[in-house]
Write a structure and sequence with these properties.
- This protein has about 140 residues and is mainly beta.
- The chain folds into 2 domains: about 1-40, no CATH class; about 50-135, Immunoglobulin-like (Sandwich).
- Helices cover about 5% and strands about 30% of the residues.
- A 4-stranded antiparallel sheet has the order 8-7-10-11. A 3-stranded antiparallel sheet has the order 5-6-9, with no helix packed on it. A two-stranded antiparallel sheet has the order 1-4.
- A hairpin with a 6-residue loop joins β7 and β8 (about 95-100).
- The two termini are about 15 Å apart.
- The relative contact order is 0.18.
Length: about 140
Amino acid sequence: MTVMTGTTFGLVQGDLIKASIAATNPRGEGKYSDLNTQGAEAKVAPHTPTVAPTRGSLTNDNQLEVQWEFVTDIYKAGGASILSYSLFIDDGNGGEFYEVDGDSKSLYTLNSIVIQSGIASGATYRLKYKVKNIYGFS
C-alpha cells in the first residue's frame, strides 16, 4: 500500500481520490480493477503527541506509572472530536505490543495510569497509543 501525502501529490483535506488496483505475485501482475468511482476522501494525517509519555514517580520494581499529555485539539485529530484512546505496551523485550486499557474514553480524561500486570524489574518497556474519532483509529 502506498501512503500519499498532500505535499507529494498536492492533496488537501476533502479532495476525492479515485484508484484502481492490481495484484502482483511471482507469475506477474494481474489486471487492474475498475476505477473506484466513489473514491476516498483525503484526510489530515494525525499529529504526534506534543510530549512523549514519561515514567511517573509511582514506578517501582513491580509496577510502571505512565504519564502523558494527549492531543486534545480536534484539528490535530483530522478535524473531528476525539472519541477515545487506546494505550499499548510491549513485553519489555522489544516484542509485540498489547493493549493496556482497551478502547476507553476514560483514558481521555486521565493523564497517567499504573500498570502492574507483567512488569519485570530492570526491563525496558515501549509504549504507544492510538486515537479514535468518527473516521476511525489513527
